[in-house]
Amino acid sequence: MNVEIDRESGFCFGVTNAVKKAEESLKKVKVLYCLGDIVHNSMEVSRLAQLGLRIINRKKYHSLNNCTVLIRAHGEPPSIYEYAQKNFIDIIDTTCPVVLALQKKIRETYLDIAPMGGQIFIYGKKGHAEVVGLNGQTNNTAFIIEDEKDLDDINIDINKPVVLFSQTTKSLSLFNNLSKKLTEKTMGKAKINDTICRQVSNRATEMKVFSKEHDIIIFVGGAKSSNAKYLYSICKHNNPSSFFVSEEKNLKKEWFEGYKKAGICGATSTPGWLMEEIAKKIKQI
Ligand code: SF4
Q1: Backbone angles phi and psi of 171, in degrees to 5
Q2: Is the pTM of this model over 0.85?
Q3: Which CATH architecture has domain 13-96?
Q4: 256 alpha carbon, distance to own chain's centre
Q5: pLDDT exceeds 90 at position 27
Q6: Of 3.40.1010.20, 3.90.650.10, 3.40.50.620, 3.30.470.20, which CATH number belongs to 2-9+200-284?
Q7: Best mutation site among 12, 165, 203 for ligand 1, i.e. most ligand atoms within 8 A of its Cβ?
Q8: Which pLDDT score is estimated for 225?
């Protein structure tokens, strides 16, 4: 069987930077905590855990002092930095520059329009780490919109500023639908900010082509990754013989029967080494 790994798949620069900084820091400090999974891929999290990275949740974070904590590419709200300052926590900040720029834009917009009773909308997943960090810039006053229907439940005051942003990893086409609806509801007054990271949306276009070029697609991704779910749905739509795996033991021999060309792709959180391992295993099968 011919097995090809999609060259555009794998870590985006934001995740590459976070993992690299974690590896470097692990060589320097005795204990390195990471607030939340450094990447939504359990195989990569286990690899880094073996090097000494300790994943903690927010509750544990708020019990710490005098230690080193890594902030992952998703970013965090201001309250996390304030706690660190008061409790002598050394922060290794690997917030992706794209997310940092978005946080800044939201904060500035909030400071600008809050005195006028302005309303900020963020298209994103409620409780997602990046969204928590973005909402923190508005003092947790933004409306988090998961889909178009959510807009129906909000009483929008169109005589006051209305501004829309998006979590960086959302689908561009769904964002466009939502923007259209918000524009209609506000009679064109809403200010729309397309803040979707092209590291994800451009891959969707490439994946459409890649998935059609192969008989079978093995999509490698973590169960908790939003962009893995989204990119996998693109593959499945364009090639019904697409399968989602998180590790090599998920592969099934019967999937490959009658096929000659297998394509492997992954999310922005899928490590290259894992796709290589999956490729080797498919060749053995
Ligand atoms: S997907 Fe984009 S915003 Fe998110 S970490 Fe990667 S480069 Fe940064």
Answers
A1: -75, 130
A2: yes
A3: 3-Layer(aba) Sandwich (3.40)
A4: 30
A5: yes
A6: 3.40.1010.20
A7: 12
A8: 86
